[in-house]
Amino acid sequence: MPADPSKSNTPIQLKGQLLLADPSLRDGMFDRSVVLLTDHSHDQGAVGLILNHPIGKTVGDLLKDDRFDSLKHLAVHEGGPVSREQLTFTSFWWSDKLGLRWATRISADKAAEHARKPGRIVRPFVGYSGWTAGQLESELRRRSWFTATAKPDLLGHAHDRMLWTDLMRAISPLHRILAEAPEDPNLN
Question: Into which CATH architecture does domain 5-187 fall?
C-alpha cells in the first residue's frame, strides 16, 4: 500500500492507484466508487475512471452502427462527471512486471482488437473523473478517499457496486467495518 497521502503535504504520485470513496461521499456520482487514476501529477491534476458503476446499458443500446457489432454486448460504465456526452473505450490488462496496465480513449477498432487478446478486458465509459492541480491532494487530506494498490485479481472481480465493498474489506479491519455498515445508518 502506498504511503498515506492524507498525512503529508509532500507531492505524491498516484497514477495507477485506486481511489476508494469514503462512505461519506454520497453525492451519487462517487457514492461507493472505485476510481482508477489513469494520470496524476501535482502540477497538472488527476484523471481517472470509475470502475464499478455500470449504467445498465450496453454499447449496442447506445451505438447502432454495424461497425460496433463486436462490442455491442459490452456493459457501459459511468466513468465520471466530465465529458458525459462521449462514449470512450479503455482496455485493461495485467503485467507481471508492471502491474495493472491500460490504454484509454481507444477507437472502436482498437477496442475490438484488444477484446480478442487473452487477459484483456475492454470497457466502454461515459465520461471520466478529473481533478485540477492540488484538488485531489486536498480531498485526500480531508479523507474523502482511501488509496489502494491494484492487485492481479482486480480484473477478475465483477466491476459493479460490490467491487468497492470487496476492496474496502481487504484494506484493514476498520475498513471492513466501513464496508459492511449500512448505506444509511439512520435507518438501522
Answer: 3-Layer(aba) Sandwich (3.40)
